[in-house]
Write a sequence for this structure.
């Protein structure tokens, strides 16, 4: 698969990851990897932050939507 963002710019770069939201291929330059905190716990305990992080892969477009 090729990087979608690069393809739009007329370049051909092999994709190294895929956006989990829209599924477009992304090269190292365009991939956005963000670690999301997982909150665990529930009634009767208040939510506490766990040390686990959930990595997610986003493209620049989806990242912009999620971080408005
Ligand atoms: Zn690219
Ligand atoms: Zn996307």
């Amino acid at each position: 698969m090729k990087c979608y963002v690069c393809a739009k710019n007329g370049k051909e770069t092999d994709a190294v990851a895929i956006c989990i939201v829209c599924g477009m291929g992304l090269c190292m330059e365009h991939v956005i990897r963000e670690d999301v905190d997982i909150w665990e716990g529930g009634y009767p305990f208040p939510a506490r932050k766990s040390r686990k992080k959930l990595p997610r892969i986003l493209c620049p477009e989806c990242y912009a939507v999620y971080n408005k």
Q: What stands out?
A: The longest strand covers residues 48-58.
